[in-house]
C-alpha cells in the first residue's frame, strides 16, 4: 500500500510542488494549508509522513509538531519541516518540538524523495 | 511537460495573490489599522514568493523577496519600527517584485540591475551587509572520498522521540553500496526494564563503496545531534581537489534550482490554473446554450401533450432541465472571475500617478471578490485606469489646495464593486473638486457642442463630458492626456453591455458608476408578450407583477401615469409606446404590469400584454452584427427558433429622454 | 474584406490587353435597376421568413433573424436605396452576406444572374451628393443589357455610422 504523506503549507505552490513530486514517486499525498486544518485532518485520517512549513497563519509549524507529538498516534510518525536556509533558530526549535528531519527550501525534487524515504523507509 | 507548466502557473497565480495581499497589508499599516497578524502576513507573503520562486530558479525576484522578508523579520522582532519611509520602501520593493515576477512569467529578461537601487535601499534599511550574505562554510572534509567507510552509529536513548528510525538509516546506507552491519546489543536492559521509546542498540557498518564522506554524513543529517557518530575511511582517505568540483554531491548551501525544474519551458504567460483556450470555453458556452434552447423546445412540445400521457417523459424532462442548469452553472463558473484581477493593478497606478502629480491620495478598494464574466473583467482595465487617472488629475486637489479648502491633505478615491440585481456595479468616487458645470457648459458652447440658447439640466451637462473630444483640463497633462477618453470609456463600457453615469457635487467630489452585466452568456428570463412580439425580462430585475385596477393608476401632469403600490407611486411605462409596437394592449386593466427595479431610477412598472413563461435564455449579441439599441440588452433564440429581444430595464427607464426627439440641444448632441 | 475590383473602382481603366483581375457578382433586380453583390461575400440565399422587429430602427431595417444561433439583421435593400419598402412574399429571398466580422441578410426581390466583371470595366460612381445612396455603391459596370451597380458592402454594413433612426416614432 502506498505510503500516505500530508503536506502542510500556506503556499499553494509549495504544496503542489511537494504533492506533485511525491505522487510521481508513488506516494499518496494530502494537503492542508495551515496547522489547524492539518491537525484536524490528521486526527481524522492518519498518515505515514507529515511535511510541514514552519511559517503559517493560524498555527505555525512548530506548534503543529508539538501538538502532533502529544498525540499517541503521532509519536513515532516522521515529521519533516520545510525551512529556509540560515533559519537555524527555527530549525532548532522545530527539532526541539520533535521534528524528525528537515528540508531546506528551495529543494531538489529528488532530494525530497530521498528525505521522505530516509524517514519513512 | 504539462505538469511543470501547471506548477509554474500555480506559482504565478499564487504570487499574484500574495502580492495583492502584501499591498493590502501595507495599506493597513500605512492607515494605522494594522492588526496583530499584519506584519506576519507580510512576512509570509514575501517568504512564500521567495520559497516557490527558488524552486523555479527565479533568482532575481527571489533575491529581492529575500531582502524584504529579512526586513520584515526585523520588524517582526521589533528591531526596526515601521516608519513612513520604510513603508514607501516596502511599497517600491513590492512594485519591483511584481515587475520581476511578471518578467519571469512572460519569459522576458527584466532590465539587468533594475532592482539594484531598491535592493540597496532595502538592505541598508535592514542593515544587511552586502558581502555577509550567509554562506555556510564549506566543510572541507565532506568532499573527501575513500574506497569505503567504517561507520559507528550509536544512537542516544532519545533518538526515537523525533520519530527517526535507525532501520531506515541503515537501509539508506545500504543503498550507497555493499554494507556489512553489526549490531551491538550491549546496552539493552533486561526485558522488563525496556522502555520501548528508547534507543538501546548501536551499529557498526562497513560500507564498501567509493563515495564521498558527505554522502555518508548526509544519511545521518537528521540524527547527528541524537547520536554518537564516527565515520572513518577504510583506507587512507584521498582528497584530490579536482573531484571536489566534479562531485558536489551534497553541500549544505542551498543549491540553485534543480535543472529539471528551472529548465521548464518559459512558455506563454500563465494566469490561470488550467490553461484553456477561451475559444474552447466559448464553444462550450454556445453548445450549452443550444442545449438550453433544445430543452426549452422539448418542454414546449411536452406542455402541449395531455397531462399524465407519459409521466416518464415529464420526469425525464425535469431531470434534464435540472442537470442542464447545473451544467450551465459549471460552464459559466469557468468564465467568471473576481474583479480582483483588475482591481489589484489599481493601487500601484494610483500611487505612481499621485507621485507624478504631487498629490497625496489614498485608494480604498472594496468588493474585489465580486465575480464577473472573464471577458468583462479583461475589458475593464482600460476604462478603470482612465477613470482613476482622471480622478487623480482633475478630481483630487493638490494637498495645499485641499488644506486651504478645509479638507484633509490626503484625498480619498474609492473603488468598489458589488452585485446588485443581476448586474455588477462598479463605482469610482473621489472627494475632490467635483464637476464645475458652469465651466463644462461654457466649454461645450465654445466648441459648438451646445447651442448658446439651450438650457440644460445638471445631468445633461454632466453628459457633455462623455462627448468625443471634450476636455475640461486647463492644461493638457501627461497623465490624463489630451482629453482623449471619456467618450472612449463610455464606448468601451457600452460595448460590454454596460452603462456609465456621473454624479458630482462641486467642491465635494465626483462619482462614476459603471453598471455591467453579470455574465454575457445566460440569464433567467421572463418571457412577456407585447403585440405579436415576445420580449425577455431579466428575472433578477423583477419585483412583482400585477394587473392594476382603474383606481390604482393616476395621471401626473408632465410625468405620464403612475401606479399606486402600497402607498408609493411607480411610473407606468407601457412597453409598446417605447418600442413603437402595433396592436398591443393599451388598457392597463387588461394587460399586466411588471414592476422592475432599475439601477438608478428606482422602480418602474412595465405594461405588457401578457406573461408567457419563465425560462433560461442564452444571451446573444445584437451588436456583433447590428448595433446597440437603447432599452435592449441583447437577443436570444426561443424554443421555436425565433429571436426575442432581451430588455435592458435600466435603459428602458431612461428611454423617454432618448426616444422623444425633443429639446434642440439634445438632438444636437447626438450628431457626431 | 475589400475586393480588389472595388479598390480599383476609382482607378483609370487599365490599358487594353493588360490582364485585369475579374470577379463574379450575384445580381438582383430592384424595380428596373440591377445591383451586383460580390459573390465572395455571399454566404447563402434563403427564403423570406418574418424577422423579429428591432425598436428605434430605420424603415430599411426589417429586424433580426436566427441564423444557426447567430443574430443576423435583415436589410431591405430596396428601402435602403430609397425605393420604398419591399412587400415581402413567398418569392422574395434573403441573401446572407459576410463582410469582415459582420453577417447580414439582404432582402431582395429575386436573384437574377451571376456576372463576371473584369476590374477594368468597373467605372467610378459619379459624385452627385455625399448624402445620397450613391455612397452605398462601389462602382458601376456597363453591360449590354444595361448597367449593374455594385453594392459597397463596407458602407452598407457600417450600421454604427448609418443613420438608423426611424424618420418618426410610431406613437
CATH topology of the largest domain in chain B: Heat Shock Protein 90
| Overall outline of chain B | extended
Please identify, by name, the CATH architecture of the largest domain in chain B: 2-Layer Sandwich
Which percent band covers the strand fraction of chain A?
Answer: 15-25%
Question: From the helix content, strand content and strand pairing of chain A, which structural class follows?
Answer: alpha/beta
Domain count of chain B: the total is 5
Unreliable runs of chain A: none
Low-confidence stretches of chain B: 129-140, 237-272, 472-483, 657-672
Mean pLDDT value of chain A = 87
How would you describe what is shown here?
The complex is a heterotrimer of chains A (121), B (672) and C (171). Chain A is α/β, with parallel strands linked by helices. Chain A is built from five helices and five strands; from the N terminus they run βαβαβαβαβα. Chain A has helices at 12-24, 35-44, 61-69, 88-97, 109-120, and strands at 4-8, 28-32, 49-53, 79-84, 101-105. A five-stranded parallel beta sheet of chain A has the order 2-1-3-4-5, sandwiched between helices. Chain A starts with a strand and ends with a helix. Chain B has five domains: 4-128, Four Helix Bundle (Hemerythrin (Met), subunit A) (Up-down Bundle), CATH 1.20.120.160; 143-248, Alpha-Beta Plaits (2-Layer Sandwich); 278-337; 339-517, 2-Layer Sandwich (Heat Shock Protein 90), CATH 3.30.565; 522-652, SH3 type barrels. Chain B contains 22 helices and 22 strands. The longest helix of chain B is centred in the first third of the chain and has 29 residues, at 2-30. Chain B is extended, with a radius of gyration of 35 Å. By secondary structure, chain C is mainly beta. Helices cover 7% and strands 41% of the residues of chain C. In chain C, the strands form two sheets. Chain C has a five-stranded mixed beta sheet with strand order 8-1-2-10-9. Chain C has a five-stranded mixed beta sheet with strand order 3-6-7-5-4. Chain A binds chain B through residues 10-14, 16-17, 20, 55-57, 69, 75-79, 82, 84-86, 95, 98-102, 104-110, 114, 117-121, and chain B through 3, 6-7, 10-11, 13-15, 37, 40-41, 43-44, 47-48, 50-55, 134, 136, 160-165, 167-169, 171-172, 197, 219, 221-222, 225, 253-255, 257-258, 260-261.
Amino acid at each position: 500500500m502506498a505510503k500516505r504523506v500530508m503536506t502542510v503549507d500556506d503556499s499553494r505552490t509549495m504544496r503542489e510542488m511537494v504533492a506533485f513530486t511525491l505522487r510521481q514517486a508513488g506516494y499518496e499525498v494530502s494537503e492542508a494549508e495551515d496547522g489547524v486544518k492539518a491537525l484536524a485532518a490528521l486526527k481524522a485520517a492518519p498518515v505515514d509522513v507529515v511535511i510541514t512549513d514552519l511559517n503559517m497563519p493560524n498555527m505555525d509549524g512548530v506548534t503543529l509538531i508539538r501538538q502532533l507529538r502529544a498525540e499517541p498516534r503521532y509519536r513515532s510518525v516522521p515529521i519533516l519541516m520545510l525551512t529556509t536556509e540560515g533559519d537555524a533558530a527555527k530549525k532548532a526549535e522545530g527539532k526541539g518540538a520533535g521534528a524528525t528531519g528537515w528540508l531546506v527550501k528551495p529543494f531538489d525534487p529528488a532530494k525530497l524523495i530521498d528525505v521522505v524515504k530516509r524517514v519513512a523507509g | 511537460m504539462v505538469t511543470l507548466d501547471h506548477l509554474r502557473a500555480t506559482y504565478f497565480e499564487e504570487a499574484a495573490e500574495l502580492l495583492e495581499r502584501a499591498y493590502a497589508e501595507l495599506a493597513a499599516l500605512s492607515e494605522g489599522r494594522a492588526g496583530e497578524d499584519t506584519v506576519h502576513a507580510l512576512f509570509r507573503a514575501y517568504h512564500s514568493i521567495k520559497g516557490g520562486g527558488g524552486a523555479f530558479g527565479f533568482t532575481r525576484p527571489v533575491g529581492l523577496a529575500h531582502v524584504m522578508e529579512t526586513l520584515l523579520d526585523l520588524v517582526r522582532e521589533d528591531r526596526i519600527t515601521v516608519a513612513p519611509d520604510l513603508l514607501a520602501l516596502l511599497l517600491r520593493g513590492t512594485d519591483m517584485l511584481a515587475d520581476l515576477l511578471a518578467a519571469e512569467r512572460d519569459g522576458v529578461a527584466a532590465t539587468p540591475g533594475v532592482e539594484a537601487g531598491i535592493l540597496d535601499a532595502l538592505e541598508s534599511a535592514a542593515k544587511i551587509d552586502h558581502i555577509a550574505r550567509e554562506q555556510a562554510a564549506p566543510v572541507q572534509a565532506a568532499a573527501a572520498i575513500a574506497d569505503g567507510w567504517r561507520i559507528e552509529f550509536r544512537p542516544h536513548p532519545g533518538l526515537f522521540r523525533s520519530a527517526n528510525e535507525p532501520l531506515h538509516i541503515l537501509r539508506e546506507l545500504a543503498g550507497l553500496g555493499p554494507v556489512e552491519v553489526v549490531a551491538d546489543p550491549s546496552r539493552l536492559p533486561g526485558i522488563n526494564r525496556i522502555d520501548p521509546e528508547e534507543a538501546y542498540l548501536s551499529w557498526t557498518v562497513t560500507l564498501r563503496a567509493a563515495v564521498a564522506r558527505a554522502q555518508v554524513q548526509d544519511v545521518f543529517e537528521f540524527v547527528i545531534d541524537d547520536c554518537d557518530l564516527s565515520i572513518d575511511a577504510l583506507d587512507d582517505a584521498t582528497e584530490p581537489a579536482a573531484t571536489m568540483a566534479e562531485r558536489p554531491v551534497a553541500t549544505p548551501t542551498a543549491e540553485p534550482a534543480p535543472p529539471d525544474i528551472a529548465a521548464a519551458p518559459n512558455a506563454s504567460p500563465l494566469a490561470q490554473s488550467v490553461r484553456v483556450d477561451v475559444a474552447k470555453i466559448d464553444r462550450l458556452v454556445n453548445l450549452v446554450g443550444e442545449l438550453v434552447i433544445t430543452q426549452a423546445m422539448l418542454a414546449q412540445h411536452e406542455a402541449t401533450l395531455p397531462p399524465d400521457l407519459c409521466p416518464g417523459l415529464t420526469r425525464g424532462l425535469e431531470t434534464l432541465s435540472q442537470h442542464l442548469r447545473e451544467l450551465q452553472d459549471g460552464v459559466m463558473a469557468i468564465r467568471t472571475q473576481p474583479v480582483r484581477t483588475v482591481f489589484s493593478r489599481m493601487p500601484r497606478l494610483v500611487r505612481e500617478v499621485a507621485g507624478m502629480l504631487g498629490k497625496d491620495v489614498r485608494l480604498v478598494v472594496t468588493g474585489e471578490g465580486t465575480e464577473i464574466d472573464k471577458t468583462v473583467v479583461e475589458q475593464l482595465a482600460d476604462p478603470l485606469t482612465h477613470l482613476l487617472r482622471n480622478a487623480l488629475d482633475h478630481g483630487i486637489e493638490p494637498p495645499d489646495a485641499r488644506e486651504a479648502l478645509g479638507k484633509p491633505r490626503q484625498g480619498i478615491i474609492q473603488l468598489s464593486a458589488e452585485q446588485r440585481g443581476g448586474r455588477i456595479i462598479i463605482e469610482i468616487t473621489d472627494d475632490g473638486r467635483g464637476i464645475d458645470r458652469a465651466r463644462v457648459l461654457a466649454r461645450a458652447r465654445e466648441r459648438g457642442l451646445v447651442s448658446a440658447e439651450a438650457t440644460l439640466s445638471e445631468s445633461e451637462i454632466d453628459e457633455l463630458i462623455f462627448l468625443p473630444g471634450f476636455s475640461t483640463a486647463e492644461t493638457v497633462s501627461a497623465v490624463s492626456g489630451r482629453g482623449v477618453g471619456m467618450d472612449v470609456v463610455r464606448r468601451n463600457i457600452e460595448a460590454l453591455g454596460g452603462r456609465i453615469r456621473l454624479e458630482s457635487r462641486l467642491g465635494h467630489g465626483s462619482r462614476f458608476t459603471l453598471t455591467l452585466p453579470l455574465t454575457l452568456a445566460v440569464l433567467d428570463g421572463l418571457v412577456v408578450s407585447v403585440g405579436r412580439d415576445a420580449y425577455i425580462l431579466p428575472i433578477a430585475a423583477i419585483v412583482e407583477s400585477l394587473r392594476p385596477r382603474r383606481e390604482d393608476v393616476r395621471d401626473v401632469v408632465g410625468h405620464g401615469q403612475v401606479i399606486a403600490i402600497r402607498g408609493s407611486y411607480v411610473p407606468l411605462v407601457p412597453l409598446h409606446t417605447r418600442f413603437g409596437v402595433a396592436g398591443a394592449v393599451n388598457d392597463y386593466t387588461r394587460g399586466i404590469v411588471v414592476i422592475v427595479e432599475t439601477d438608478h431610477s428606482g422602480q418602474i412598472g412595465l405594461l405588457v400584454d401578457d406573461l408567457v413563461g419563465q425560462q433560461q435564455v442564452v444571451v446573444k449579441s445584437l451588436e456583433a452584427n447590428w448595433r446597440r439599441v437603447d432599452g435592449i440588452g441583447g437577443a436570444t433564440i426561443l424554443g421555436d427558433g425565433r429571436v426575442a429581444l432581451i430588455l435592458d430595464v435600466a435603459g428602458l427607464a431612461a428611454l423617454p429622454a432618448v426616444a422623444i426627439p425633443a429639446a434642440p440641444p439634445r438632438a444636437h448632441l447626438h450628431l457626431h | 474584406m475589400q475586393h480588389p475590383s472595388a479598390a480599383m473602382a476609382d482607378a483609370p481603366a487599365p490599358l487594353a490587353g493588360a490582364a485585369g483581375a475579374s470577379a463574379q457578382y450575384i445580381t438582383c433586380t430592384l424595380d428596373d435597376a440591377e445591383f451586383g453583390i460580390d459573390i465572395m461575400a455571399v454566404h447563402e440565399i434563403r427564403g423570406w421568413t418574418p424577422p423579429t422587429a428591432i425598436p428605434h430602427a430605420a424603415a430599411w431595417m426589417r429586424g433580426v433573424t436566427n441564423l444557426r444561433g447567430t443574430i443576423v439583421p435583415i436589410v431591405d435593400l430596396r428601402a435602403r436605396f430609397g425605393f420604398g419598402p419591399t412587400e415581402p412574399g413567398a418569392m422574395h429571398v434573403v441573401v446572407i452576406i459576410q463582410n469582415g466580422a459582420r453577417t447580414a441578410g439582404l432582402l431582395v426581390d429575386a436573384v437574377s444572374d451571376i456576372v463576371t466583371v473584369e476590374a477594368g470595366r468597373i467605372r467610378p460612381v459619379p459624385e452627385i451628393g455625399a448624402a445620397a445612396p450613391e455612397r452605398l455603391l462601389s462602382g458601376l459596370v456597363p453591360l449590354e443589357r444595361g448597367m449593374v451597380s455594385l453594392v459597397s458592402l463596407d458602407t452598407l454594413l457600417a450600421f454604427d455610422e448609418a443613420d438608423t433612426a426611424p424618420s418618426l416614432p410610431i406613437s
